[in-house]
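Wed. Picked up where I left off yesterday with Thyroxine-binding globulin. The coffee machine is broken again, so keeping this brief.
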Amino acid sequence: MKEVEGYISKEHLKHWRNSVPEEYIDLYLPKFSISVDASLRDTLKELGITKAFEDNADFSGISDETEIKVSKVSHKASLSVTEMGTEAAAGSISEMIRLSLPPSVRIDRPFLVFVMENSARSILFMGKINNPTLIQENQKLDVGNAVALCAGFNPLESF
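Structure written out below (tokens, as returned):
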């Protein structure tokens, strides 16, 4: 896992996102929940958003107050996957049946998780699960249109 983590770059994520086909699978995945609470101040400054943090910031378009500036920008995200699916998932769904059995993917070791928005092909969330405990076979996780980004895919052999 350390080798894969050290190897991942923006280019690798873009390649995986664009080249790994979407596939319907039977997914056996441990229940997990991860969250992050981070300050975005430095990130926004690196992106060139600096004036909002300065004493002479101009927010006249949104406030009558003249002496205000942004002091803190925080971002909190969480992802929870249970036997019922993902928490706070939204979207439309249609159901089709396959004429053949889908491939089965069993995750029972540390893994990386990526949540991707399909229309823009943007990675919204990524995390690492260090110590998964596999759920029982009769507790198959139904995640609907699961995309197996790593099923049969060794990122170290692809480049």
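Quick read: The chain has a mean pLDDT of 69.
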